[in-house]
Specification:
This protein is mostly helical. The chain is built from 8 helices and no strands. It has helices at residues 13-25, 37-60, 66-78, 85-92, 101-111, 126-149, 156-165, 172-195.
Length: 196
């Protein structure tokens, strides 16, 4: 059976995961067809450069003169960026699907997730399952917050399910942080409706 012209093209798991994180991070419409590839590339490259500069400073602590350290930093800043817009766009549109470990590391850092989240079928481990659960909890929390801010109705069962979904899968500190975020969203929505 052929797909109709209006049916979306199937995309690979890495592109799906990147799109999902991009929609969450930039608060985009889930049906978007355009993604901020330049911002993603610049953000990852900036994080990579900052880490390299920090490593140079740590390595040079007391060993190099300030002038030599500044020269090393200038050289790092002149290097080619870790990612460019074209490469990120290719990842998002499933034209590339095998980024290096360092690229995955900085994509994870940029999106605030464990790089294990990007591993695909056949590479599933407890770490990848934990990373997937973390992203699911973030998505559920954002959806709950959006519904509350839009004045939508959320029943108590839905609220408790969303709050507890990740509580037994994350560290207590992470689960507590997520619950505090949800409570803050509820407080904000309550104040909004009280002022109306």
């Amino acid at each position: 059976m052929r797909a109709s012209k209006n049916d979306p093209e199937p995309i690979g798991p890495l592109a799906q995961k990147l799109r999902r994180l991009t929609i969450l991070k930039f608060n985009l419409d889930p049906d978007t067809s355009t993604y901020p590839a330049t911002e993603i590339a610049d953000g990852c490259s900036r994080l990579y450069e900052q880490d390299k500069i920090s490593a140079a400073r740590e390595h040079a602590a007391g060993l190099l003169a300030d002038e030599a350290l500044e020269q090393a930093i200038r050289e790092i800043e002149k290097e080619k960026p870790l990612l460019n817009r074209s490469y990120v766009s290719d990842l998002l549109h499933d034209k590339r699907d095998n980024p290096t470990k360092i690229v995955l590391q900085y994509l994870g850092k940029f999106y605030g997730v464990n790089p294990a989240y990007f591993f695909v079928e056949g590479e599933e481990t407890q770490e990848t399952r934990d990373a997937e659960s973390e992203v699911e909890l973030i998505a559920a929390t954002r959806e709950l917050k959006r519904k509350l801010e839009d004045g939508g109705q959320v029943n108590a069962g839905q609220l408790l399910t969303a709050m507890m979904r990740g509580a037994n899968q994350l560290t207590p500190a992470m689960a507590t942080g997520m619950i505090h975020m949800q409570l803050a969203a509820i407080d904000q929505a309550t104040k909004k409706h009280g002022d109306a």
